Amino acid sequence: MWRRCAWLAVVVALPVLALSDTGRFWFITDIHYDPSYLRPHQPGRVCDSLGPGMDPPANPGPWGDHDCDPPWRTINSSVYAMKAIDPNPDFILRGGDDVPHVDRASLNYTARTVVTLLSNITQLLEEVFPGVPVYSSLGNHDYWIKNQLPDTPNDVYNDVATLWLSGAGQDAMDTFRRGGYYSAPLRAGLRVIGLNTNLLYGRNLVTEGQDDPAGQFAWLEQQLEQARGNMEKVYIIGHVPPGTHERIYTKRDFRPNHNKRYIAIVRKYADVISGQMFAHEHFDTFRMIYDEQGAPISTVFLSPAITPWMRRNNPAFRQYLYERTTGELQDYLQYYANLTKANDLQLTDLDWQLEYQATVDYGIPDVTPVSMETLRNSLNEVPSGAFEKYYKHNSVGVDYGLCVEDCRAAQLCSTYRVDYDEYDVCWQARVGGVRGHRADGVLNVLALAVMGVVRHLV
């Protein structure tokens, strides 16, 4: 099923590495494989992932459509493009959501369907990158019923633990079976902590009202304390991110108490945490976390998706460069394929291109928190060439028009006010109290018009 395409159009833009201790890894997320594309279960829909009440695409192309989740050929192309660019990464990290956006009333999906789809993606990565460690986090769609991931053992957690973590040790498998989270070594002095942030998701009714679902926060602090004692550095990966959505200023995914606790943990262990990689939004952005004195101490990177669903983005995946001895992130390269062009030209494979390299496009020496704070400050300038680049990259080249007033305020506040109370102060200062909190504000009207009603943005 995942045979390599006849040819692969891809720009190989691997940078020359000046230091022998510089490593590379891939981050790929929000694949949302839709097996029904162009052969849906419901006649006339084009794809099962088409949102309820939405009109089917008029001209669905062979590589997918911006109203649907992608077919297998698009996913296959993306993984082989990664292979063509860098066949020997140190490891691969994933942000979750392999399963398509389907309504919970669908009769075609069960817990078994979810595990099968997760297995399809896992097997593809293992076959294309034999011997390369792959570590993943669960997305809010990687369970049935979506969003309702439990804080107790269940068949999905058990099956996925076996699928993903059989080589990571018994402790990793045990915690995953208990709550969908784990810790595993990446190399000497560096480990990954895969969080199940869906337990903290406001749409998860199963864990509503709990201070620490499945004991994940207590476990996370224990893991970070242990890493500090062992002189290890840590990458944290997760799906649902902390903070406020940069395009919809009323959309916050963590519950408020969980958001505050996560920030407090990052502040306490910033010396241990070398990187945070999250997903879920499908957009390309970042969020800064500061210490009590206001110094930048950690960056939450949100990577764009493979799926182009709801016209948010073009398909994309990311490569990180890091310092092997410290785990410090040095740079990232963002790759993408123009979906509309591929369909219009009837290409025999997607034309994967380097969209941008962070240090080059933004003129920063690296992507450490200090440098990302320099970038964040440059976004505030008026006019700001950096902000224009950032906003274009945010949607991976999908044209959302100009970003002014409410739109600009939401983008800027989101990047450096992860705490919700601090975000509200930032928002009101930029757009003005009552106007800033209108339910029908300019940003919401534009966002909902482009992406559909809020209930589909999950």
What do these coordinates show?
There is one protein chain. This protein has 458 residues and is α/β, with parallel strands linked by helices. The protein has one domain: Purple Acid Phosphatase, chain A, domain 2, CATH 3.60.21.10. Helix content is 33%, strand content 16%. It has 14 helices and 13 strands. It has helices at residues 72-85, 111-128, 155-165, 170-179, 216-229, 256-268, 339-344, 358-362, 369-379, 385-394, 406-416, 420-431, 433-436, 442-451, and strands spanning 9-10, 22-28, 91-94, 134-136, 182-187, 190-194, 233-237, 273-278, 285-290, 296-302, 316-323, 329-337, 351-357. A 7-stranded mixed beta sheet has the order 1-13-12-11-2-3-4. A 6-stranded mixed beta sheet has the order 5-6-7-8-10-9, with helices on both faces. Strand 5 (182-187) and strand 6 (190-194) form a beta hairpin. The longest helix is centred in the first third of the chain and has 18 residues, at 111-128. The radius of gyration is 21 Å and the shape is globular. Zn(2+) 1 binds at residues 30, 32, 97, 282. Pfam families: ASMase_C (PF19272), Metallophos (PF00149). Residues 1-20 form the signal peptide.
List the main descriptive attributes of the protein structure presented here.
ASMase/PPN1_MPP; 6-stranded mixed beta sheet; Purple Acid Phosphatase, chain A, domain 2; 458 residues; sphingomyelin phosphodiesterase activity; single chain; Metallo-depent_PP-like; 16% strand; Sphingomyelinase phosphodiesterase; glycoprotein
